[in-house]
Amino acid sequence: MVKLTIPEIELMSPGHTGCQGCGATIAMRYALKALGEKTIVSIPACCWAVMPGVWPNNCMRVPLLYTAFETTGASISGIKAALRALGEEEVTVMGWAGDGGTADIGMQALSAAAERNEDVIYVMYDNEAYMNTGIQRSGATPLGAWTTTTPVGKTKFWERRPKKPMVDIVAAHKVPYAATLSIGYPEDFVKKMKKAKEISGFRFLHIYSPCPTGWKSPPQYTPKLAKLAVTSRAFPLYEVEEGIYRVTMKPKKTPLKEYLMLQGRFRHLTDEDMKELERDIERRWKELLLKEEMTAKLEELNE
Amino acid sequence: MVRMLLTGNKTTAYSAMRSRVQVVSAYPITPQTTIVEHIAEFIADGLMKAEYIQVESEHSAMAAAIAASNTGARAFTATSAHGLLLMHEMLHWATGARLPVVMVNVNRALGPPWSVWADHLDSISQRDTGWMQYYVENNQEIFDTVIMAYKVSERPDIMLPSMISQDAFYLSHTVEPVDIVEQEVVDNYLPPYDPPYRLDVNNPAGFGSLVMPNHYYEFRYKIAEAMEKAKKYIKEAAEEWYEITGRDYRGLLDCYRCEDADVVLFGAGTMMSTAKEVVDWMRAEGKKVGVARIRVFRPFPGEDVRKVADGAAAIGVMDRAYGFGRGGAFFNEVNSALYNHRNRPPTKNYIIGLGGRDVKPRHIRAIFNDLLKVKDEGLDEEFRWFGLRRENMPEEEI
Q1: B70 CB within 8 Å of a chain A CB
Q2: CATH number for the domain that contains residue B375
Q3: Structural domain contains residue A140
C-alpha cells in the first residue's frame, strides 16, 4: 500500500465563500491537515476574514479568532500567553494573514512577535496585492505587475519595485524557522508545515497563493501558476532554520515569460520589460544560492 | 487590613495583583510607566503569577489583551493619553467582541503642544467605544474600583470592558495611604474568570465573523442593553464591597452635601476632593453648596443627575477637557439628561485645569460664588474658560 504523505483529516468543510480557483483556500486546507485539530487560528482583515462564511456559517473546524488588520502578531501572542496561563501547552496557535496584513500594516506587530520569539506560527498567504478590497498594490506586489493602484496607463505606471523579502526580514530577527511554501507543491508544503509545528518559538511561513481574480488568470491554472512561479524562480522554495538557508527545491528552470503570460496582470509587458524582470529574478536566485552556501558554514556554530 | 503608603501607579499594580490577572500586556508611556514597571517587578519577584507580554505599542497591548481574554484568561493593561488614542480601534473591538478587559488609564493631556499633565480629553475621546468608564479621586479608589470593575465586567450578562481613569501625577505619582485588601478576601469577592464562550479546541467556534445588515443591528442592541443593566450591577458590586471594607462607592454619582444644596457643582477626578473641602468651608459660612462627582461616566447616571436637579437652583459643571465646537462632555451630558426632565435649573460649564493647571480651593470657591450669582440673577454665559490668562495670548501684530 502506498503511504499517504498528506494527512486525510479535513478541518476545512466545503462552503467557503472564496472565488473560483482561489489559492488561499487550498493553502488553508493543507495547513490545517498538517497542524491537526489542536490548533487555534487568528485571522485579521484579509480575504480569509470573509471566506469562512457569513455568520452563523463557518467552514472552519478549529477555533477561529478574527482580529483587526494590523494585529495578527499581537493577537497570536495574546492567545498563546492565555493558553500558558491556563496551563494548556498542547495547542498550536497560528496567525493567518494576507500579504498586505503582513508586509504592510501588520509589519510592526509581526516584527515584535518575532523579536520576542513568541511560540506561534505566523502564516503570510501571499496573493501579491490587496485582493479583498479589489486588487490594490501591497509591499508584496511583484515588479512589473498591474494593480488598480498601479495601473499601466500611458506612462507605464505599473509596479516598479520588487517584492518585500519577508522571509529574509523575519529570519533576520533570529527566529528558529522561516520558510517559503507554494500550494503548487503540496508535499513540500505539508512537510514544512509539520516541521514548523514541531519547532518551538516563532515560525514564519510565506505561502505563495495565486489569485485568479486579481491576477486575471484562468481559475483552473491556479496550481499550474503556483508551480511555474517556483520553476521560473519568481518564487523560490527555501527555508531558514537557525540562520541556515536551504533551497528546498532546485527545479529545472522554466522561462519566466511562460509564467507571466498566463496572467493578465503582466500582459502589458514587452519582451524588453520581461528581460528586466528576468534579470532581477536571476540576481535574487543567485543571492539565495550564495546565502545557502555561506550560511552552511554556520552549521558548526549551531552544534 | 494592610495599609501601605503607595503612589496611584503602585496601587494600580497591586490592584492587578489582587485581581489575579493572568495576562498583562505592557507598553510604557508617561505617566503610566511605573504601573507596568511595578507589575514586572511583582512578576520577577514571584509575588504575582501572570504572563507578561512586552508588546511594541499600545495598539498591540490592547490587541493582545483582547486575544487573551477571548482565550479565557483575565487580561489587564494600562496606558495614558496618546497610547489610549492609538488603542482606539481596539477599544471598539473589545466591546464588539464582548470581552471584560480592564484597563487603567492615567489621564493626560494630548499634544501638540506636548504635555504630560492631567487632562481628561484622552478618555473623553473614547466615550463612544462602549467601555464602562470610571473616574476616581484618590488612590484607594483606584484599588477598589479595579477589583469591582472586573466583578461587573465579567458577569455573563454584561461582558463589557472597563476603563478606570486616574489623574496624571495628582494620583499616579502621589503617595497616599492605601488599604491593600488581603488576597483571600479579594478571592472571595472576585471569583476566577470563567467566560461562557472562549477559544477552545474541544469546542471550536469562530469569534467576530462577518454579519449581514439583518443581524448587525441586534448585536449593537445587545451591547446597549448590557451597558444599561451595568448600572444596577455596579451598585450591587459596590454594596458588596462596602459590606467587606466599609468604603462606600454605592452611587454612580458621588454626591456630597447635595441634599439641601442651592447650587451643585458637577465634575470628575481629583479636583472633586478639593471641591468637597471647599463645600465644608462654605457651608460653615452658611452657603448651601454641594458637589456631585461623576464617578461612573459610562453608563451615564442620568437618573441620579435628575435627582440632584430636583433640589438645586443652579448647576455648575467642571470639565477638565474641552470638546471643540460645543463645550465639555460632562456639561453636555448633564444637560442632555435634564432636557426631558421637569426641573431644569440653569447650568453653566466651567472649563478648568487643562494640561495639568492646578485647580485650587480658591478657584472652586470663586466658581461656587459665581453659581450662587447665577441662582439669584440668572445665567450670564453657558461656557466659561475659568482662569484664562490673557497675558499668555498677546495680540499678534499683523
Answers
A1: yes
A2: 3.40.50.920
A3: yes
Same domain for B239 and B280, yes or no, is no
Residue at a domain's end among B228, B245, B262 = B245
Q: What CATH number should be reported for the domain holding residue A59?
A: 3.40.50.970
Rounded Cα gap, residues B99 and B129, in angstroms: 13
- Relative to beta strand B132-135, strand B296-298 is antiparallel
Which residue ranges of chain B lie beneath pLDDT 50? Answer: none
Question: Does one domain contain both B276 and B135?
Answer: no
Q: Which of B245, B273, B299 is the last residue of a domain?
A: B245
Sign of CA dihedral A205, A211, A214, A215: positive
Nearest to B78 by CA among B56, B51, B105: B105
pTM of the entire predicted model: 0.97
Contact A55 B56 (CB under 8 A): no
User: Distance, in angstroms, between B71 CA and closest chain A CA?
Assistant: 6
Among candidates A54, A62, A65 on the partner chain, residue whose Cβ is nearest the Cβ of B210: A54
Residue A241 has pLDDT above 60, yes or no: yes
Is residue A2 assigned to a domain? no
The minimal CB distance from B206 to the residues A39, A58, A73 is found for A58
**Structure letter (DSSP) for residue A206:** E
At A4 the three-state DSSP class reads: coil
* Owning domain of residue A134: 23-302
| B396, part of any domain | no
A301 confidence band (pLDDT: 50, 70, 90)? confident
pLDDT at A2 over 80: no
Nearest to B64 among A55, A66, A77 (CB): A77
For chain B positions 185-204, those within 8 Å of chain A (CB to CB) are: 199-201, 203-204
Q: Where are the beta strands (DSSP E) in chain B?
A: 3-6, 23-25, 51-53, 75-80, 102-107, 132-135, 162-167, 176-179, 206-207, 253-256, 263-267, 289-294, 296-298, 314-319, 347-351, 383-385
Assigned domain for A134 exists: yes
Contact A58 B59 (CB under 8 A): no
B258 within some domain: yes
Range of the domain at B294: 253-390
pLDDT (tens digit per residue) in A153-172: 999 999 999 999 999 999 99
Q: What phi and psi, each to the nearest 5 degrees, are found at residue A92?
A: -90, 130
Alpha-carbon span A42 to B55, nearest angstrom:
17
